[in-house]
Amino acid sequence: MYPYEDRMRAVKLYIKLGKRIVATIRQLGYPTKNSLKSWYREYVQCHDLPAGYVRSRPKYSPQQKRSAVEHYLNHDQCLAATVKALGFPSCETLAAWIRELYPDLRHVITRTNNSSPFRPDEKYQAVSDLCTRHGSAQEVAQKIGVSRPILYKWKNDLIGDEAYQAMRKRNVIHSNEEEGALLDKITQFEIQVHQLQLERDILTKVNELIKKDLGIKNLALTNREKTRIIDALRETYPLPVLLGVLKLARSCYFYHQSAMLLSDKYAEVRVTMADIFNDNYHCYGYRRIHSMLRQNNKVISEKVVRRLMAEEQLVVRLSRRRRYSSYCGEIDAAPENLLARDFSASSPDEKWLTDITEFQLPAGKVYLSPILDCFDGKVVSWSIGTRPDAQLVNTMLDEAINKLTGDDRPIIHSNKGGHYRWPGWLERIQAAGLVRSMSRKGCSSDNAACEGFFDQLKNEMYYVRDWSDITLEGFMQNVDTYIRWYNEHRIKMSLEGMSPVKYRQQLGIRI
């Protein structure tokens, strides 16, 4: 709270300075803008004028205001140039006078930041028009929509201060040497503008034809891609110029141009590869696609397959998510790890693996509980539900036990989750004569084969799609369809390029 004397001192100084708030605050060091305005209103309402006080006359007369505004309107409409020519007032005050006398005039530029509404290519074109004009610079400036000093400032930024000063001194007669130097500057600028336009056109064609970012470097392009860019721009620019900018040899250009005119001998293979990739959940890499092509009597090398997949953008998308953990603490003594990370089996129904994985969807959560056979990775049985309870794993186990024949008594390996230590699970294990085996606590690598199956399933079916518009029942149907495709159609390189079902059929094993 300021005392009365300080407030009066501030108000009187504010009136003396012509009601300039910023100047008053800078001189006194106080108060805020809003406080000074409220003190002034209180001062006017109370008419608390000291005896003999005479209001100071305005700093500028109406004639000065009008002459300054007329000078602004008749001389390029530039605030800074008008203030420099007259010596008064400030640019802000002159802008206020113009708005006061000509409220409909919208050409006053009061922008104080460094932003410009004009793009760099528009500035280049404006300066080019200025250098090659036949009329006055004012006509060029009015055509663009800027003032004449701004246009010359753009020119000064591009070709240097010397040429800018030479253009401003119109009344000085230049010598032949100075005129020649100025013409050389203009010629250099025109070459620079032409070079920038060429680089811009090249980047635009790269984005249109090759679908690469505008910031790509020329050295990152292949010779075939450079040839395509040159063919697209040959009608606009000479061939030697394009070859020099893209750093491509003339013989190399004509070689690739001739090669592109020939028919693509891999055209049919490209279509077949795309069909294989799209029909198999976008999860086949170059090895599996190469194996599928050989099965279709299309023999090409793996390197060619990799190159064609890169050109056709057949990329397998991978992602990692947090895994579900079903460990609920120790309930009773757990059995030993009988597999010891040996997931190989010489015959079916010798070693089984099981676990539970979780799918997080916008509609809710879904859980999958499968049993895998270590012999060929076939999913023996599986159950899908919305809750990871005893019914989920018991249903899966009952279905797998029903498929056993003869004296098969496989080892069933799981983690130490509570699902595999409840009474219902133990009773079914004992009744079927199965052998229990469990991983160590928090050691997922002890059940790596089952974890690998979950990783393949999610990378190939779950992560690559948007499930925001599907119900839980629809998603469970998709998981069921994938597992059936996994057993019957998905080829594995460890099975000589065959699916688990086809591999068993070839060996004569009952499915």
Description:
By secondary structure, the protein is α/β, with parallel strands linked by helices. Helix content is 53%, strand content 7%. It contains 22 helices and 6 strands. The chain starts with a helix and ends with a helix. The protein has helices at 4-16, 21-28, 33-46, 62-74, 79-86, 91-101, 120-131, 137-144, 148-159, 161-168, 176-210, 223-233, 239-246, 250-261, 267-279, 286-295, 302-311, 390-402, 423-432, 448-462, 472-488, 500-507; strands at residues 351-354, 357-361, 364-373, 379-385, 411-414, 435-438. The radius of gyration is 41 Å and the shape is elongated. β5 (411-414), α19 (423-432) and β6 form a beta-alpha-beta unit. Among the domains are: 4-46; 62-101; 195-261, no CATH class; 267-311; 351-507, 2-Layer Sandwich (Nucleotidyltransferase, domain 5).
